[in-house]
Amino acid sequence: MKLPRLKHYKWWLRVAAYSFLVAGQTTATLLGRLYYDQGGNSKWMETFVQSAGFPILLPLLFFFSPSLRSTPSTPLNTSSMKSPPFYTLAFLYLGFGLMLTFNNLIQYRLENMIGVPKGKYVIGFLCTIGASATYSLDLSSLQLSFQRVIKDETFSAVLDMQIYASFFTTCCCLEGLFASGEWKLLGKEVENYGKGRVSYMMTLIWTAVTCQISSIGMLGLIFEVSSLFSNVISTFALPVVPILAVILFHDKMDGVKVMALLLAVWGFLSYMYQHYLDDSKSMVNKTSTNEASGTGAVIDVC
User: Fold this and answer.
1) What pLDDT was estimated at residue 293?
2) Which of 40, 41, 48, 164 stands the most exposed, by the fewest C-beta atoms within 10 Å?
3) pLDDT value at position 203?
């Protein structure tokens, strides 16, 4: 009875990860668009809020902590549960924090390309390629870290990765915010925000929350499936944003957006179809192997 329950649990865990990633990424992107449309212009503030919401995950970290949930009667294999050295984890979290900071800064460039001359769209194109490459590298590095360094198949390991990496990212963004002098302009930015102070604060707060939700979904899919699958689900969220932007911000659905939407859907469906074929082939091979082993057993008995 434990095996069906385990499969059922994993299925619901993946559904939750899908929902977190798609809903969080879509909402965070739309809130970032609202921030710039209403007069927000601080690249470091927008980058800061994408990682500063990690404290909301601390209660979950305490709840899922193995030290709090383990009992004395539960035997532990110390050889397999040995933690990596502290300096290894510190270097790992710092590296991912720097990668997240770089990726968030490039994303700022992409979201702030509204109303700029067409000649500068070359910069936007290069930023798009750089952000996509960095994001894919980040996902692959995370999967490699889970497999080779952390080696801990628990939800607390996912929370550790998100919280500590976000902490280093937040520190880098704070340093950039004060070093660039943008913190001096935040008061004026709040005063001139189109929808008022309350809307300004709520936009930043919910951006921070939804970014953490999206990141937990992303890490959960990397942990449960693979970095490629997490990237595919993230790509699936791309067509949702233009459709909601047409409804909420009254954008025009031009030919370029339609082509981008179709390409995103095509890429997602292509991966899912190939995944279905691979899974079907694996099931057929497994069935053939079981039948062959069963036949061999009958021959041996006879």
Assistant:
1) 67
2) 41
3) 95
Identify the three-state secondary structure at position 223.
helix
Q: How far is CA 31 from CA 18, 115, 176, 184, in A?
A: 20, 18, 22, 23
State both tokens at 40: 């927000």
pLDDT at res. 20: 86
d(CA 139, CA 271): 17
DSSP tag of 154: S
Q: What is the DSSP letter of 225?
A: T
Give the model's pLDDT for residue 297.
46
Domain boundaries, the chain: 2-65+83-228
CA terminus-to-terminus distance, the chain = 33
- List the one residue out of 101, 82, 263, 70 whose CA is nearest residue 174: 101
What pLDDT was estimated at residue 192? Answer: 92
- The tokens 């929902």 sit on which residue? 19
By three-state DSSP, how is residue 177 classified?
helix
What number of other Cβ atoms are within 10 A of residue 43's Cβ? 20
Q: What is the 3-state secondary structure (H, E, C) of 23-87?
A: HHHHHHHHHHHHHHHCCCCCHHHHHHHCCCCHHHHHHHHHHCCHHHHCCCCCCCCCCCCCCCCHH
Burial class (CB in 10 A: 0-12, 13-18, 19+), 38: middle
Q: Which residue has the tokens 């659905």?
A: 253
Mean pLDDT, consecutive 10-residue stretches, the chain (302 aa), reads 58 76 89 90 89 90 65 40 57 59 56 58 71 76 80 80 88 90 91 93 95 88 80 77 85 78 79 78 78 54 40
